[in-house]
Amino acid sequence: MDIRVQKIFEGLFALEDLREIYRQALPSGLDQEEETRFTEKIASIREILGDLEAGTGHPKVTRIAETIELRTREENLINIQPIQAAGRLTPEARKAVISYGDGYSTCDACRKPFRLDKICKPPIATFHEDLAAFVGMDQARVVPGARRGFQAVTSTIVNRGDSVLVSGLSHYTEYLAVENAGGIIREIPVNEQNVLKADAAADKIEQIKQETGAYPVLAMIDHYDYLLANEHDFAGIAKVAHQYDIPILYNGAYTVGVMPVDGKKLGADFVVGSGHKSMASPAPSGVLATTDEWADKVFRTTQMVGDLTKRKFGIKEVEMLGCTLMGVTLVAMMASFPTVKERTLHWDEELKKSNYFIDHLLKIEGSKVVSEYPRKHTLTKVDTTGSFDKVAQTHKRRGFFLSDELSKRSIGGEFAGATKTWKLNTFGLSWKKIHYLTDAFTEIAEKYEINILNEEKKR
After folding, report:
1. Can you tell me which residues the record assigns to a coiled coil (predicted)?
2. DSSP β-bridge partners for residue 364
3. DSSP E strands: which ranges in 128-183?
4. Which residues pair with 421 in a beta bridge?
């Protein structure tokens, strides 16, 4: 670890210790003993700042609460981990974590009607309105991850034995949400290019009707799947689903927060996004948005009344279990939101960077792309069976040789030991880092005498 990174963490922790003195003190100010500790801590911070400025010193803090290692991946490495790239917190979100880390911090100014999406300070109510507009829908709620958005919709619409349409490349959480509601998963097959098309959805719907006597009650379709990040014909499938009066859920776990999404324009009845995967937010966080037509159903309020006390909580939403993202996860999501909105306007640039890297990876003889190519997303599945895996067959470290070589170059996030098929994500990397990443893979190939193709041979 760069000693300056180490000292930044030590400085941040020392400031938190300093802050704790005030959190334990009386509102009237510090007493003599507290003033002494305050002065001593200031001195230690000055020492840390001296080491930080000079780039000297030795690590003094390596664990949090004695057992938890420091996480410095984003400071010390180029991280290409496929599910982490778009979830990196913005500086504003990290500041929110510092300020709003206490459990029920968002509830300081909660007043009647005592519901999360009604809180005005911090501006949570406005944030909900902005979220709905951001994805082109009428109403939105924050949820603990995309999976809880799926669950809210399936528990609203799906009854035991009902059929639900999904893709054969759908995420496991969609399956679990349907199972939890008692429904039956029915998979639409992808074509030879591993892409979902509208005609396949229509054929599946007719097949289900013929077999069961009833149409599916819901379709849950990924715009870009998590396995290959291929683009699927969501708009076409939505049009087909609506011809059969089947509501459709847009799974935007890999789109909402990284590229423009207009739910109504796409034909979605529900839009689900992942905060920690694509909206620069802490986990677990996400968004569920819908149209006014479905809002009263999926955001229904409780009608339950206690038999003895006659207590009732009519303002609380059943599928949300009252309130969802209390505290730091929500406020950090809010803090990142301006940056998230802005970065969706530059999706084309992210694709250029992704394709630049993939183009050069393909020049390493034997390397292939399993996903669509040219890339339409920054997450990509590659096949290096014919290149790096050939080296792994005789290397003493086997497949881990590639991880070792990348680690030497301060690159992380690849699947350790994988040299056949694996995934990476370039989202958010600067052009400087893209060039560094590209050169690193080329250097490793050259070191192990893997042929580098010219442009004509590559194609």
Report:
1. none
2. 452
3. 139-143, 163-167
4. 383
| 407 annotated ligand binder | no
Q: How far apart are CA 383 and CA 376, in angstroms?
A: 18
Give the whole-angstrom CA distance, residue 289 versus residue 300.
14
Quote the CA–CA distance of 41 and 18 in Å, as a whole number: 6
Torsion angle of C-alpha atoms 13, 18, 20, 25, degrees rounded to 10: 180
Structure tokens at 432: 């400087």
Task: Tell whether residue 177 is among the known ligand binding residues.
Answer: no
Distance of CA 47 to the CA centre of its chain: 38
* pTM (two decimals): 0.95
Is 277 within 8 Å of 300 (Cβ atoms)? no
Strands across the sheet containing 379-383: 368-369, 379-383, 421-425
For residue 429, give the nearest of 367, 370, 378, 368 by alpha carbon: 378
**68 secondary structure, DSSP code:** E
Tell me: the pLDDT tens digits for 119-148? 999 999 999 999 999 999 999 999 999 999
Task: Say yes or no to pLDDT of 96 above 70.
Answer: yes
Scanning the structure block, which residue is given the tokens 């000297």? 56
Peptide bond into 282 cis (omega under 30): no
Mean pLDDT of 32-55: 97
To the question of whether residue 276 is assigned a binding role by annotation, the answer is yes
Asked whether residue 275 is marked as a ligand-binding residue, the answer is yes
Q: Domains along the chain?
A: 3-76 (no CATH), 109-326 (3.40.640.10), 346-458 (3.90.1150.10)
Task: Please give the Cα distance from 223 to 167 (Å, whole number).
Answer: 10
Angle at 303 between CA 152 and CA 246, to 5 degrees: 35
